[in-house]
Predict the structure.
Amino acid sequence: MAVTDDVVLVDQHCHGVLVTDVTAEEFAAGLTEADTAGRPDRWRSMLGLAVRRWCAPVLDLPAHATPAEYLARRNDLGWREVTRRLLRAAGVGHWFVDTGYATDTSPTELADLGGGTGHEVLRVEQVLEDTTAGSATELLDRVGAALRASAAVAFKSVVGYRGGLGLPARRPSERDTRQAAERWLRGGTRLTDPVLHAWLVHEAATVGAETGRALQFHTGFGDADLHLHRADPLALTDFLRARRDVDVVLLHCWPYHRGAAYLAHVFDTVSVDLGLMVPFAGARTGAVIAETLELAPFESVRYSSDGNLLPEIHHLGAVLWRHHLGRLLDEWIGDGVLTAADAERLAHDVGGGNALRSAPHLLGDLDDQR
Amino acid sequence: MAVTDDVVLVDQHCHGVLVTDVTAEEFAAGLTEADTAGRPDRWRSMLGLAVRRWCAPVLDLPAHATPAEYLARRNDLGWREVTRRLLRAAGVGHWFVDTGYATDTSPTELADLGGGTGHEVLRVEQVLEDTTAGSATELLDRVGAALRASAAVAFKSVVGYRGGLGLPARRPSERDTRQAAERWLRGGTRLTDPVLHAWLVHEAATVGAETGRALQFHTGFGDADLHLHRADPLALTDFLRARRDVDVVLLHCWPYHRGAAYLAHVFDTVSVDLGLMVPFAGARTGAVIAETLELAPFESVRYSSDGNLLPEIHHLGAVLWRHHLGRLLDEWIGDGVLTAADAERLAHDVGGGNALRSAPHLLGDLDDQR
Amino acid sequence: MAVTDDVVLVDQHCHGVLVTDVTAEEFAAGLTEADTAGRPDRWRSMLGLAVRRWCAPVLDLPAHATPAEYLARRNDLGWREVTRRLLRAAGVGHWFVDTGYATDTSPTELADLGGGTGHEVLRVEQVLEDTTAGSATELLDRVGAALRASAAVAFKSVVGYRGGLGLPARRPSERDTRQAAERWLRGGTRLTDPVLHAWLVHEAATVGAETGRALQFHTGFGDADLHLHRADPLALTDFLRARRDVDVVLLHCWPYHRGAAYLAHVFDTVSVDLGLMVPFAGARTGAVIAETLELAPFESVRYSSDGNLLPEIHHLGAVLWRHHLGRLLDEWIGDGVLTAADAERLAHDVGGGNALRSAPHLLGDLDDQR
């Protein structure tokens, strides 16, 4: 019985799941951020091992079932039953769902399958890319209005994938922004203009600050489109120093999680998220969390799974977090590093309390779970 | 009984302590490098846990006393008694005190409180900023003379906080230096000119080489003013390759401690310091030390606490180093990695011997403690 | 009995050994990547401890013999007997030998001493530097022909030591390449021209793709000539994204092994090598391997020793890999992370199978050892 066992999680950054059965190739593609899934064998990785160990029993198979056995059983049960089992066993009370990727299920549909409540995380690049306007002024106004009007629980930017995280401390000038918007209106489809992107992120920060919503950034580990260096969260330093009005969440972070922890240490508005690495690093989850905790205040660390497409990822995020953080905390209790009460509080805060504190309208749930 | 238990430490980089009782807010501010100390709760961190675990018993409280209990007892005893207890229990024979920050106590006053002997570490930027002169030539001469005349045990540069560690391999030309000095005399108050800064560091290196004093650099983890990337010790590579005449100590280093260990491996004049992270990482101290030892020669690693303002930091540097390095070495002895005699020698060298070797006039003390 | 014990290794990147007895100074120089070997004492490092622990018994000394005892016994036995014992005890079936450094022994001579079979790894910079030609066209043609005609098992580039790993995604234009070749013919002796270097690496990639040979890159940890930042494997991202036609092996990697593991995760043509760090990190080998395995697919990780000059390095690569990976896998088996069969397969693949798969003509040996 670890102190993490009964924490009702807030999965503060995830995506929807596929609503069909999958082939072996499609499943393998879900186990990697690569855009290919032939060689190397994706089951032969920390994540693949974790699926066999932790997910197989949820489908009534023995732990460490073979990939072939797993996939056969998965299709016997059918995607809906598999998804229900895996998501429900994750023990999640709130799903914060980035609706910009893996959109077969809406936040509500994900929660219908998995229990708990679904909330949208709005990808700000998509807001701009989806907005039509007759003039630059209209475009900028409409984007700002869309952000303000959104019911999203948080905003998210993928600028780390585009121009990189080296955002300016200040919002670009009105004139530069208008010119960039005009260029965009003459034929943009994918936001890559650094001026317009900087304006958008500053605008989202402003709206976030006004409306009590955090701004999440993709940082660190991601797919083959990324230049990992440009996604180092430290590149955000000037932006973070200037924008202390808004809560910022650094997603994923690995292998820059220690630098992210430094940012969370020196800027009280910054939080570090554990998602993506928690499921992908498998049995190494505890080591990555421990490195993050070296410097990050415990109130500035947040659980998520970054689960997408395969409900196995959502599930593994939760069970690996419970198992490995639980084990780390048990060791620390045994060594006299902290008390059981301290450990319990840490687990509840990282597991959900910290995320709920920047989504105040959900705070009732936090009290319920205590 | 670990091999680290009876090492008389050389705290080769620390600062003075406050000489007043502190409020809860002031204490919390001392537990962080952030410039704010409200939210998140600074007690809820590896460092905060370590205060409750290790410092509370020194004040006659049970381990893991609450923050409120700790602060109440601290003020009951009064700052002087608390400071005496915490510093003396650290078991430090020599304090190398950077007199450029947290200056309520001089090196001698710190040693009066904590036992052992105090020595000044001279911050070279402060020397220049405090020098008045009628001409560029006079300024440069006076700075050089002040460095030469100083009784400091070592020099320290904070260029990592200003222009960054990318110092040129060569001293700027006389003409460029004179022009930079003239600009400075027309109204500088905080040294940020890269030419004048490069001259200053090269001058300090030259004086250090001539007089047998090491040159310490702030690298890695520090406060919210920092751009951590620019404080990566690897940026010093060209400078270190060119200036093999002077002993250089890379302070703090985290999260770049492995890169710092590489520099200590390839340049025999370079040492890696463990300070700041040893107290801040709390129970993770052993992991950080182990990563540093992967590549750094054992004769090129130095203990310090970077203690400042709160004597708790000085104390925790020592007890965490003893506990966690002691444990690591015990594990290694148990696994046959090294002998008990090897472990003892490593502990004595890192704990003080290595620092004393670049302060030859103190070496008598090293022999005493063996 | 660990699952790594009986793996016949493929040392997929090493060098030749000295064919003379060595002085204490020469031996110390072999224990470091520094270009000096006086102070600090090179025996007092993780590598030095590992020599005393693991190599001393191979020379009939007790584990942890002193350096003086070790060196005396080493010279009593003579270099040939010492080398035979250390290399044979490594249990290596194939030696992939970079013939651009430490060339006293050819690949065949190394294998004669150590058992198994020797194969050449061809350093592409040396091919160009050794090629004479009367015109640019002739130079480029001859280099290409030399690569094609080579019997090498793999190519290797040290561009990380020269202009750095920031190679362009595309081969330079014919005109730029010809001009660069003309400049080279007017007096080059050491390849540093970025255009000609980029052409050379692209040409080697093309020939590698055509002839089924991997292209190895020096990345990360190396000697004092290096600027470690410029050897960060992530700088290769654009090149790797563009050149998915050729197998690429990232050598050494530390302290950037997690970034290297990301590249191996997102690009299925990329492998991560463990060499150099495995012997140098000594008892920390297990930690470095574990960090690499967080994200690298198991089929994309390769054993090597990077042994050079001293056969102790080749030996320690093997015994440390067996001991520490074996221990990590035993722990994981005990914790239910994977099955014994999974662990055995991982050990065989990393130990040799993965390297043999990109050297198809050697694959018969892989089947033999299974």
Notes: Residues 366-370 of chain C have pLDDT under 50 and may be disordered. Residues 33 and 222 of chain C are 6 Å apart (CA to CA).
